[in-house]
Amino acid sequence: MIGRIQGTLISKDPPLLLVDVQGVGYEIEVPLSTLFDLPATGQPVTLLIHTVVREDAFLLYGFGRETDRRLFRHLLKVTGVGAKLALAVLSGMTAEEFASAIERNDLTALVRLPGIGRKTAERLVIELRDRIGAGDFTAGPTGGAAFSPQPSASSEAMIALEALGYKPAEALKMVKAVPVDEQLTVEQIIRQALRPKAGG
Fold it and tell me: Left if phi > 0, otherwise alpha if psi is -120 to 50, otherwise beta: which for 184?
């Protein structure tokens, strides 16, 4: 699966982008939150990718922040929520704001989002309140920093821990417990994060 794309931004036709990677043009759908932070066409761009493979299509969804991609993936697990609605949610509010609304059971804020009616808002709260919290979406890079050539080692370590089965909040806490050292590799951060607290 494609997880990240780095290339030259050829065109913007919201919500679709065309990114050239060594002569191959990738069409990528993005939320407005990512679109607003993009550089000008002709400039280098890096996007985190969620890939969807269907019998009739190979679809790429791009994000400037890991927190946005993580929320997108949570949304796809909700009954009745597809990629278009998930992109609309991320276009209407930040991942932090959305998680906060879920935590507060703020149906009014959710219903303001495009394509979200009261029943869908209630379903989002019921299915996501035990999976996400506002604290899960506060560690990712923001704004233009999201388009740096590589995600930080800490961010990649969090992704790896989540792949091992840890919840986002647990992964965040584990990575935060590792002493800050820019020289640490992803593997070193993961090893330290997995160490028992009593261990050296």
Answer: beta
Taking CA atoms, 197 is separated from 54, 61, 135, 192, 200, in Å, by 44, 38, 22, 10, 8
Burial degree of 61 (CB within 10 A; 0-12, 13-18, 19+): buried
Whether the Cβ atoms of residue 188 and residue 168 lie closer than 8 Å to each other: no
Between the alpha carbon of residue 194 and those of residues 122, 166, 183, the distances in Å are: 36, 11, 18
Terminal Cα-to-Cα distance of the chain (whole angstroms): 37
pLDDT tens track for 42-100: 999 999 999 999 889 899 999 999 999 999 999 999 999 999 999 999 988 888 899 99
pTM of the model: 0.68
Domains plus CATH for the chain?
Answer: 4-63 (2.40.50.140), 74-137 (1.10.150.20), 152-194 (1.10.8.10)
Question: Which pLDDT tens digit goes with each residue over 168-181?
Answer: 777 778 888 888 77
Q: How far apart are CA 82 and CA 41, in angstroms?
A: 29
Tell me the pLDDT tens digit for each residue of 6-48: 999 999 988 899 999 999 999 999 998 898 889 999 999 999 9
